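During the no-cost extension, the postdoctoral fellow (Dr. R.K.) reprocessed legacy sequence entries with the updated structure-token encoder. One reprocessed record is reproduced below for audit purposes.
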Amino acid sequence: MSIKSTITTLPDGREIYCVNAYEVNFSVNEIFNDELLTHGIKLPIDGTFIDVGANIGLFSLFLLDKCPQSNIFAYEPMPEPFFALQKNLTGKAQVFSMGLGIEPGELLFEYFPGISALSSSNPVISNEMSRGLRRVLLEPSSDADVNEILDKTGANQRIQLEPDFVEQLFVAQKVIAPIDTLSNQIDKLDIHNIDLLKIDTEGSEKDVLAGISEAHWLLIQQLVVEVHLGKEETYLMEQEFKNRGYKTAVGFHPLASSGAPVFHIYATR
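Re-encoded structure tokens follow.
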């Protein structure tokens, strides 16, 4: 695969590498706020953070802004986002060109060059998310939050100016990527405490969690998990965290009301 990369500017003036600038606009709207803190997540200035499904590294950059002395491990299996991730986090974090899952090996991913953050090894969820996002982009919404997101990303303008824009977003490529378990990585990297584990893997979140040994659960102080498996699975996962002694909260992404089922679980000890 030839690597597509471009440079865009964050609202604070920083230039970063990315796959698509309009994705950055969306992610900045989603990540660079204080929502974590409102759900009780604490970010130690010298904390250890694991970013699973890091894409181009915006969440890791957010953590570095809040916690400049932190130790970050960021994982991204798709080559194009990983190239940008490396550029954005060089000298700031440890980055790994792999996904995390149930067992070591390889997995087949559907990679979407037009929406790199949509890429997934779960084809059912990938198709469901694609259908939901198509509806969000093409059908008028009465949800003010959704319309604000589309305006901020420039999606509405692109749709009007480029008739094929939406269809181009959902053209997928097949990519095989290496996978390890989180517990293997904890052992290899000699990690003794995890202040925050963030998981955003477009439908593979249960597989990532299944790759954590019982002993290593004790190291994990907090989690933020983006869930793409529907409301029922979200609450089942939340209950599992409660059973492990975490205090939890569930957040509803604005797109969830418009056909793209996205939820967030916040879990703290």
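Residues 161 and 223 are 40 Å apart (CA to CA). Residues 123-138 form the longest helix (16 residues). The remaining legacy entries will be reprocessed before the final report is submitted.
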